[in-house]
């Protein structure tokens, strides 16, 4: 089966459209989070989303609609507590993360254990995404991308020097909460792409790969987006051709890009 034949399938078309939007969202947001040393928040929120998804399944409700408000509230709570107790941010994320997993296990046991439905949310299966899920993911991803574009310079100032941003009149508290909010949304829209357990890879790896070889913030953002999108496209086609899990394949392709970028940086340092 060649690429042209694969593209004829409706489920592949939906997967590609959703994957490209989600990859753009996560790879761009990841640059801001890594440079602000907030990348662990993605890992914590992904575990919270597992608990929320399990709750939705146990109640017989659409998991994404349940996960969205819960994960957003958790992201805002993490940011608020981090601002109040700045030196314990990682510990707070760990507490909320482990609590999310604990609730997820309990809710999963209530809904007859780890069945196929919850496993698809745990590890991702973008090839099974419905038209409604695709439209919701594209809408939310597009909304977040528009917000990042509109507030780009404020987020840029906050990322590199929070004190300077305050002096320059940037509403630091507001934009910190905005970043947390956007991260929460990105977790939810990524659930079907790579799952709750692998989300942080989609957020971190493209940005880390870009940071290895980029010389400016703008080039870092652009290259991160390119790596994220290409990884999703290659991952989807590879998983269909080889009949292997899509979420894991996308992450492995991202990892290969990081290893290439890291090796190139080390080589040119010599």
TrEMBL record:
Membrane disposition: Multi-pass membrane protein
One family name in Pfam for this protein: ABC-3
ATP-binding found in the keyword field: no
Residue ranges crossing the lipid bilayer per the database entry: 15-35, 47-80, 92-114, 135-158, 178-209, 221-242, 248-268
GO terms for cellular component: ATP-binding cassette (ABC) transporter complex
Gene Ontology BP annotations: response to zinc ion; transmembrane transport
InterPro entries: ABC_BtuC-like (IPR037294), ABC_TroCD (IPR001626)
Keywords: Membrane, Transmembrane, Transmembrane helix, Transport
Record bears the keyword Transmembrane: yes
Protein name as catalogued: ABC transporter
Protein location: Cell membrane; Membrane
Organism whose genome encodes this protein: Candidatus Roizmanbacteria bacterium RIFCSPLOWO2_01_FULL_38_11
Family label: Belongs to the ABC-3 integral membrane protein family.
